Amino acid sequence: MTSGFLRRPYSLPTVGTNFSRNLRQLEDAYFFMRSQSQTRKSSSVAHPDKGLLSNRERTPDLSVKQTASDLKEEFFDGLCKFARYSKFEARGTLRSGDVLNCANVIRSIGFDRDEDYIAAAGVSKKIKIYEFAALLDDSVDLHYPAVEMSNNSKLSCVCWNSYMRNYLASTDYDGTIKIWDVVTAQGFSQHMEHQKRAWSVDFSQADPKKFASGSDDCSLKLWAINEKNSVSTIWNPANVCCVQFSPHSTNLLVFGCADNLIYCYDLRHTQIPWCTLAGHGKTVSYIKFLDSESIVSASTDNTLKLWDLKKANSDGFSSNACTLTYRGHTNEKNFVGLSTLDGYIACGSETNEVYSYYRSLPMPITSHAFGSSDPISGTKIGNDDGNFVSSVCWGQKTNMLVAANSAGSLKILQMV
Q: Which regions does the record annotate with the repeat WD (predicted)?
């Protein structure tokens, strides 16, 4: 499905838009890009593999010098994509009797493979599956989940399987990893090797029988569906807060930790990290791949960072691999979500807002105030003191963003 999100023509920004308000930052971004281009021709020796992993078939030719015209075209393309949108518009709102219940904070949301359903999970100890189309229907007075599954502990993360559509993985505060069959609304396997809270779980897209989990017990565990015991464990100096497989490689896995570092592993050689990325000042809470060679990370240091894995070193910390830092949202203590789509980045904020960025520019495109509202009428009630956006997820086919906040509200947003 293709929507206006992708079809909308580029347009140049005018005075009074976010372009003019951020002219100084745009200028800084341009000169930063110029400085980066001067070092690219020598970066091919930064990693001994020359490519990302030794078996990569498509290795970029980093020895080709970027011309001035290439630089201008790249910057202008990023500027156009930054300027093509100016705000988020709400397309749907979850209307539920549980909304605004403090025991219903949504910690994780996600689309299923075909983006027909959304899974929402959190401190209510329940996974609720909603029909996406129903949430877009304003005529519905109350939305009831199509499927509801109960867990023994508060839930921290859910992840759908990209191949087996009805399979959903979850992690919880007891450290248990479960695989659920959404069709039967039952868990068919559980894995209890973690000794403390498990923060994150991710299925491999390249090998959907494989999944990984990260925990406060300072371990990253690799699992296989239909095998009760983990197939491998990577011990780490600090709590593992987020994990993601590369969608483009069977062997590349990254995870972020409470020691402010990001660890990248070649799963064929798990004795030591393939590289370690340093630059955040506090806990790394989320990691997402932007493409096969770039990742974006979120931290409670109030920033997102873009990393070029081609610049990573095998030895020591790769601080030079950070190519851009995004600022604007507020994030000092909570996990507020992170999601990407075609170079666009969305995250939450402790100001109870959703923020969006484009990959090549450091300032936000726009933000959307979440607010608290009556679940039936939609009328805004109370104030937002203490509330924050707790999770975001972009639909890769629908091009809409689902966001949830700490008051238990859920919205569907679209950039326009």
A: 148-190, 191-233, 277-310
- Alpha-carbon torsion, ordered 232, 202, 312, 71, to 10 deg: 160
Q: What count of other Cβ atoms lies within 10 Å of the Cβ of residue 114? A: 10
Structure tokens at 60: 């970029």
pTM, two decimal places: 0.85
Q: Output the six-digit token pair for 218.
A: 């300072």
Angstrom distance (rounded) from CA 344 to CA 413: 14
10 Å CB burial of residue 27 (0-12, 13-18, 19+) is exposed
Minimum mean pLDDT range among 161-175, 332-346, 376-390, 393-407: 376-390
Task: Look at 29-38, 87-96, 259-268, 334-343 and tell me which has the smallest mean pLDDT.
Answer: 29-38
**DSSP string for 213-278:** EEETTSEEEEEETT-SS-SEEEE-SS-EEEEEE-TT-SSEEEEEETTSEEEEEETT--SS-SEEEE
- Beta partners for residue 202, in sequence order: 212
pLDDT value at position 63? 43
Q: Whole-number mean pLDDT of the chain?
A: 85
Q: Which domains does the chain have, with CATH numbers?
A: 89-415 (2.130.10.10)
Averaged pLDDT for residues 41-60: 45
Best-predicted range by mean pLDDT among 15-29, 43-57, 311-325? Answer: 311-325
3-state secondary structure at position 72? helix
Here the tokens at position 365 are: 């495109």
Of residues 220, 210, 171, the one with CA closest to residue 191: 171
Among 313, 195, 300, CA closest to 258: 300
Other Cβ atoms less than 10 A from the Cβ of 151: the count is 21
Burial of 355 (0-12, 13-18, 19+ CB in 10 A): buried
What is d(CA 136, CA 356) in angstroms, rounded to the nearest whole number? Answer: 21
Looking at residues 96-118, what average pLDDT do you find? 81
Residue ranges with strand state E in 53-197: 88-93, 106-111, 117-122, 126-131, 147-150, 155-160, 167-172, 177-181, 186-191
Give the whole-angstrom CA distance, residue 214 versus residue 201.
7
